[in-house]
Amino acid sequence: MTTQEKVQYRFGTRLDVPYVEAVERAKAALKEQGFGVLTEIDVKATMKAKLDVDFQPYVILGACNPPLAYRALTAETSIGLLLPCNVIVYQDGDGARVEFMDPAAALGIVGNPAVEPVATEARARLWAAMENLDKK
Description:
Elements lengths: L3 E4 L2 E6 L3 H14 L3 E7 H9 L6 E7 L1 H10 L9 E8 L2 E7 L1 H6 L7 H16 L5
C-alpha cells in the first residue's frame, strides 16, 4: 500500500499489485469486516457491451453488512436508496486503486440521528478493510 486519502464522500488507497489481485484483496478485506458483496459491476465490460468503447479495468462492488443494513432500514425505511456501500477498484498504472464510499457522508444526508451510529460503525469497518488490504 502506498498512500491513503480521504475526500468528502470517499476514502481509499493505492496498492502496488495488479488489478485482479486488488479486486480479490478488496473482497477478502470486506468479508473480514462482515460485508458480503451483493453486486459486482464490471464497468469495463459494460461500457464495451453498451457503448462499444474501451475503458480501463474497473469494478463496482456493492458491499452489505446485514446487521448494519437491518439497523439502518429499521431506523429509516427509505435508506435502502443509499444502500449498499459501494467499493470501487480500478487499474492505476501498474497498480490499482481501491476506494470506499464514506457511509457517514452518504447516510448523513438523511438527517435521522438513529442512523448516525450505524453510519459510524459502517465507516469504521470499511476503514479497517482498507487498512487490511496490504495484509492479504
